[in-house]
């Protein structure tokens, strides 16, 4: 199954050095999920050839401008582009009011239905489930209510062990049932357990997005053992006091968190506009967690175990 992440914006607060405010596209089986929508997201979608009409779900972590100020513009362009398909938006309750007031004063009635699902910031919650993905929101620890999002693919089915099945002359039309956990009874009435007829499936893949947060344990249980962890790393560790004052994380802490929760790979982003060069942030993070990478705009990251 296709499970890829494309970074559209990697900066915090303001655009700087060619970097844009936070936004990402998760592509799962050809469906697009937009995560945060900072100013400039539309231009980034155009730059990287991603059609907004393919976006079915938008997740907004919190109401600091660098995470949502591109949203109303994007909704408006979808309207002007003749969109008819429903769009689901997940975000803090006040986001609906913000969208509605823009539409009210521009006398706009969107040509497509918007389904708004408010997030909560006091507990983990499943907010979307379909055949390809389960999405949970979970509380982060920021200056205003803020949630992260975790995307888990369903456990893949077991694989047929052809050698064993061929030896028992099991007809191939029974394979799909066996993969789902059905046992096989042969002509002598002997039961063959499905676990003896299959090979263990691959571990399911997952992606967790931690937008803006203080380094604190409140959300660690929600991101345990994730295949790819995106974590903000706004500052170098020398700015720890500033990071704590503003409810942000340092690059060193992001590495510590990835290690602690058993993440397989770490992507850091939400870089402060004070840094032209990002390599010191990466080095700091890698000193703790070697499989760390910078969130680089326009790059696609395959999510794998
Ligand atoms: Zn931010
Ligand atoms: Zn913020």
Present the secondary structure layout.
Elements: E1 3-9, E2 23-28, E3 31-37, H1 41-47, E4 55-59, H2 71-80, E5 87-91, H3 94-105, E6 114-118, E7 125-129, E8 134-139, E9 147-152, E10 159-160, H4 162-167, H5 175-179, E11 184-185, E12 191-192, H6 194-197, E13 198-199, E14 206-210, E15 228-232, H7 240-245, H8 251-261, E16 265-269, H9 279-286, E17 292-294, E18 300-302
Parallel strand pairs: 3-4, 4-5, 5-6, 14-15, 15-16, 16-17
Antiparallel strand pairs: 1-2, 1-18, 2-3, 7-8, 8-9, 9-14, 10-13, 11-12
Helix pairs in contact: 8-9
One zinc ion binds near residues 12, 64, 66, 67 and 270.
Catalytic activity: Endonucleolytic cleavage of RNA, removing extra 3' nucleotides from tRNA precursor, generating 3' termini of tRNAs. A 3'-hydroxy group is left at the tRNA terminus and a 5'-phosphoryl group is left at the trailer molecule
GO molecular function: 3'-tRNA processing endoribonuclease activity
Function: Zinc phosphodiesterase, which displays some tRNA 3'-processing endonuclease activity. Probably involved in tRNA maturation, by removing a 3'-trailer from precursor tRNA.
């Amino acid at each position: 199954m296709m499970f890829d992440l494309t970074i559209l914006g990697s900066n915090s607060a303001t655009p700087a050095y060619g970097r844009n405010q936070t936004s990402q596209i998760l592509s799962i089986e050809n469906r697009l999920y937009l995560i945060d929508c900072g100013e400039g997201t539309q231009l980034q979608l155009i730059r990287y050839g991603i059609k907004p009409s393919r976006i079915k779900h938008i997740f907004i972590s919190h109401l600091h401008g660098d995470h949502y100020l591109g949203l109303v513009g994007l909704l408006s362009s979808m309207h002007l582009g003749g969109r008819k398909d429903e769009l689901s938006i997940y975000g803090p309750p006040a986001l609906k009011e913000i969208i509605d007031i823009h539409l009210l004063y521009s006398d706009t009635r969107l040509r497509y239905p918007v389904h708004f699902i408010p997030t909560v910031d006091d507990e983990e919650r499943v907010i979307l489930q379909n055949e390809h993905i389960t999405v949970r929101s979970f509380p982060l620890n920021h200056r205003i209510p803020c949630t992260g999002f975790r995307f888990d693919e369903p456990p893949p089915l077991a694989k047929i062990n052809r050698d064993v099945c061929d030896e028992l002359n099991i007809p191939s039309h029974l394979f799909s049932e066996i993969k789902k956990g059905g046992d096989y009874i042969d002509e002598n009435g002997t039961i063959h357990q499905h676990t003896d007829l299959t090979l263990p499936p691959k571990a399911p893949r997952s992606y967790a997005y931690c937008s803006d947060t203080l380094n604190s344990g409140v959300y660690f249980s929600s991101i345990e053992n994730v295949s790819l962890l995106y974590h903000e790393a706004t500052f170098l560790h020398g700015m720890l006091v500033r990071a704590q004052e503003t409810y942000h994380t340092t690059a060193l802490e992001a590495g510590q968190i990835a290690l602690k929760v058993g993440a397989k790979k770490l992507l850091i982003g939400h870089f402060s506009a004070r840094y032209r060069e990002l390599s010191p942030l990466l080095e700091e993070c890698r000193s703790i967690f070697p499989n760390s990478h910078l969130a680089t705009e326009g790059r696609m990251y395959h999510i794998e175990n």
